[in-house]
Structures are given as structure tokens and as C-alpha cells.
Write a structure and sequence with these properties.
alpha+beta; single chain; 8-stranded mixed β-sheet
Length: about 180
């Protein structure tokens, strides 16, 4: 089971079923903001939906194909960060993330992403980590920019959100480029 301590008030822990109620509560509280960029959050309408999500991430972990971790700040779940599919042949992965309402602007996501990126390069010996964000999602785009990622391009109309297509910006970091420190 994955657990990564970042500092005295912040740690990452792979989600398990004991986290379902806290995660569902955070998702409900934050839904109006989250659905702007994560339309699938709208489908999370009951505790059982959150439990299914957690079971799917446990399965991905069991298959050595990534996982989702809760971002825990001062004892409360603040958001989720995930390793998506891991391409073991080409040694790369991508990271996705979200923070709940009230937890933004504290550097939690920058620190959480840095921890996962360091883990990917040092523990898994991956060569590349990618982050994609909707071109208009400036809060999400600031994370890879702050971490020194290279903006590699735009995938046009990559996602349909609330009836409209949005472009995604692609950011990449290679293992030999990773030097982030606070």
C-alpha cells in the first residue's frame, strides 16, 4: 500500500474503502467546481459510486498499472492525485489531480505532484511523466508550469465537457530533467 509523507501536515495515501465516506463528502461539497473540468464527477451521486471508484483504483494497483491516492492535509482529505496507466515498455505515465473546495492556494497540489513525480522517477525508474490539462483550466496548468515541465503542444478538442469540446495542453517531464525543489 502506498503512503508518502510530504511534511508534518501533508501526506498522500492510496485510497482504500475506509476513505469512501470522507471522499464522497468532499466530492459532494466540491461538485459545482469540479464538474467544470471533470464531468464524470457528476456521475458520483452516492457513496456506492465512490466505493466503486476506490475499488477500481485498488484493482489498478494490483495490476501494477497506477493508482489513486488521497491528498491528506491536517488529517482531512483535500483531494485526489492519480497515476494513470503505466506504460512499462516505454517507461512512462501520466498524472491527474483535483483539490476540493477550500483547499486551493496552499501549494498542496504542487507538493503532491512533486512527490508523485519523484516517486515515479526514483522508485519505478520511469523515463517520462506527462500532465494534461484543459487549455482554459489555468489553475491546473499552473502546476506543471511551476514544476518546470515542458509545454509540448495542444491536443485539439480532446475532451467534451458540458456539451462543448475543449483543447488539452500537454506537458512533459523526463527523468534526466527532474530537479524540482522548494
Amino acid at each position: 500500500m502506498f503512503k508518502y509523507t510530504i511534511d508534518d501536515s501533508l501526506h498522500l495515501k492510496m485510497l482504500d474503502l475506509q476513505d469512501a465516506e470522507s471522499l464522497f463528502s468532499l466530492t459532494e461539497k466540491s461538485k459545482s467546481e469540479l464538474v467544470k473540468w471533470l464531468p464524470l464527477i457528476a456521475d458520483n451521486t452516492c457513496l456506492e459510486d465512490t466505493q466503486r471508484f476506490i475499488k477500481s483504483t485498488i484493482q489498478r494497483f494490483a495490476e501494477n498499472n497506477g493508482f489513486s491516492a488521497g491528498i491528506w492535509y491536517q488529517g482531512d482529505i483535500a483531494g485526489v492525485i492519480s497515476f494513470h496507466h503505466i506504460n512499462w515498455h516505454n517507461l512512462n505515465t501520466s498524472i491527474g489531480y483535483w483539490l476540493g473546495s477550500g483547499f486551493e492556494g496552499r501549494g498542496l497540489m504542487t507538493k503532491s505532484c512533486a512527490a508523485l513525480i519523484s516517486y515515479a522517477f526514483s522508485e519505478w525508474k520511469l523515463n517520462r511523466v506527462e500532465i494534461r490539462a484543459a487549455s482554459d483550466n489555468w489553475k491546473s496548468r499552473r502546476i506543471p508550469e511551476r514544476l518546470g515541465f515542458t509545454e509540448e503542444g495542444c491536443i485539439r478538442q480532446a475532451q467534451k465537457i458540458n456539451g462543448r469540446y475543449v483543447d488539452h495542453m500537454v506537458y512533459g517531464m523526463l527523468a534526466n530533467e527532474w530537479t524540482f525543489s522548494e
